[in-house]
C-alpha cells in the first residue's frame, strides 16, 4: 500500500514551511512604509502569525538563530496589530465625518 511519496524528514519539511512564511512576511513588510494601504500591514500580520504557529509546531525539529523566539514574534505581532487598529480607526473617522 506504499505510494510514491518522497522521503522527506520532519526537519526538512519544517525548514520549507518556515521559509515560505518568512518569505511572505518579508514580501509584504517591504510595502508597509511606502504605501498607505493597510492591506499590506494586514498581510504582514497574517504571515507573522503563520510563521509563529509553524515555529511552535516544528520547535522540536529546528534550531532557531539566537534572538529569534516565540515571545519576541508575539510582541511584534501585537505591535503591528495596534498600528493596524489605529489605521482602521482613522479610515472609519475619515469616512464618517458628518455622516455618522
Describe the structure.
- The protein is an all-alpha fold and 100 residues long.
- The protein contains three helices and no strands.
- It has helices spanning 10-29, 38-57, 70-96.
- The chain is elongated and about 65 Å long.
- The N and C termini lie far apart (64 Å).
- The relative contact order is 0.12.
Topology (SSEs and partners):
Elements: H1 10-29, H2 38-57, H3 70-96
Short description:
The protein is built from three helices and no strands. With 100 residues, the chain is mainly α.
Tags for this entry?
100 residues; mainly alpha; 3 helices
What's the story with the biggest beta sheet? none
What is the rounded Rg?
18 Å
**Spans with pLDDT under 50 lasting ≥5 residues?**
none
End-to-end C-alpha gap: 64 Å
